[in-house]
Amino acid sequence: MLVFSVPLVATGQKTSHAVFLGLQLGGSGEAFVDSLERKGYEIQNSSDVCTSLTGLFDGVGCIIEVHTTPKSHTVHQVSVSFVEFGANEVARSLKFNHIKRALKKKYGKWDYDSSSGLHEWSSEYARVSLGHKRIAGQPYKTLYVWWQDREGWERLVEENY
Fold first, then answer.
1. CA gap 65, 52 in Å, rounded
2. Confidence (pLDDT) at 125
């Protein structure tokens, strides 16, 4: 069973933040990373605006990046890059299709767009994207999924100006 973010219903209301592994984006980056560590992920690198952790996600080795705003350190984006596939394009393609089906099931009522080469689901408070990218220093493309919180993104824009 995939553990993807889903719109939460709490006391009959939807949350106004994206959710990743049961954790709401839009709050403290330090608390978010601490929660991921308690779930078994290990910090690899950390800066003022991004913390990278490693571990398993949906049974595959991955790098999770938690992106925060520069001043308030509010989580605005979380990405998962699957790193175990290497040159195995078949495994990457199978995982892509598996994740896409799971996201369609979870986000079927959200707006959906695949015209940009990414598969994206969006709502008034969040966006989830699925695609392929090349990680710096890696010879092969990998699969990635990222969650973006609208309020966190708006705070990022405010803090950068």
1. 4
2. 81
